[in-house]
Amino acid sequence: MRNTLTTMQSRRAFFAKSTKTALGLSLLSSTLPLGSEAAINLYGNIKSISTMKGTMATKDLGVTLIHEHLLFGDIPKDKKRESVDFAVTLVKEAERVGINTIVDLSPTRDIQLYQEIASQVSLNIIVSTGSYIHRMMPVSITNLSEEQYKDRLREELTKGISGTTIRAGIIKVAGNKTPLTDWERMVFRAAAKVHQELKVPIATHAIFNPEEQFNWLVKNGADPTKLFFSHTEAKFGWGGLTREQRGEQLLRIAKGGGHLMFNNFGYVFDTPWEDLVFLIRLLCNHGFRDKVLTSVDCYWHWDNGKMIVNVDDVHPETRKKTYSYMITDAVPDLLKAGFSAKDIHSFLVENPARFFG
Q1: What is the predicted pLDDT for the residue at 177?
Q2: Which pLDDT band holds residue 35 (cuts at 50, 70, 90)?
Q3: Were 312 and a residue from 38, 82, 112, 319 both cysteine, which residue would form a disulfide, CB within 3.0 to 4.6 Å?
Q4: Can you give the three-state secondary structure of the chain, one letter per residue?
């Protein structure tokens, strides 16, 4: 079995980088005491959310990565133990740098493997239900009727996943390119209806079509304040728009109540740093700091017996972008770019708690 830590970076380098961001961490944790009366007033009525270890108050989520993947895709039988061990290693590193909650947006997964991971860590793990890109979904999901799809969502949100008592805490849906296909419109509509019934928030994969997704979900009854749209900064999905034009799209979503999730920190081949900063700052400057969410979107899979972390087969530097990267790299970069500790506290603590609450 490979030494998973040394393939990413040495422990000495990791903790040196963590020490460098100690000030940022202390500011994150002290800007608003999470158990204080002020926190309760900020988040309104105390709400609870389902996690791998039961329900918890949303005000206690702490530093939250709202779009991650503990496991991704099919895990070969002979790689299950190594996969669990690797995920546990990454989660424990996240715990060490001050991350309190990870939201896993892999809507189809081996929940037994997730239970093994959760049993070895203290960090909160919230899992999802729903679907991803059509071509990556099993036929057991793509062949469902709309009513059957809604039944599946309800089952995993209210009773449990795959015969367990572990309930999902968020619905995930995905659109690929634009316009949405008939199947995508169906699953988005079903998600909106179940969300309307159960008041569970929705996250989407929205590289190409965030505004179309927003309008379709709201048209079908979704509460816009309980929606977030992921990867909208990915430049290859802009369809020839300038960053200013893309920014106007995102502003319209924020003005309508929706949230935008940014994760391309360190992915300069996908989103140049100056463009990523421009979009986040645009939202903040227009009074929508409370609509900005940040995460890493760490994912990894097996390819012919080789572990691929993010896109390290094409861009080896992305292997270091694991959950802890948010604190060791992204937060210092945001501070250096002129965002305040209060901004970052909003992105990682206040906004996720309010979104789920």
Answers
A1: 87
A2: very low
A3: 319
A4: CCCHHHHHCCHHHHHHHHHHCHHHHHHHHHCCCCCCHHHHHHHCCCCEEEECCEEEEHHHCCCEEEEECCCCCCCCHHHHHHHHHHHHHHHHHHHHCCCCEEEECCCCCCHHHHHHHHCCCCCEEECEEECCCHHHCCHHHHCCCHHHHHHHHHHHHHCCCCCCCCCCCEEEEECCCCCCCHHHHHHHHHHHHHHHHHCCCEEEECCCCHHHHHHHHHHCCCCHHHEEEECCCCHHHCCCCCHHHHHHHHHHHHHCCCEEEECCCCCCCCCCHHHHHHHHHHHHHCCCHHHEEECCCCCEEEECCEEEECCCCCCHHHHHCCCCHHHHHHHHHHHHCCCCHHHHHHHHHHHHHHHHC
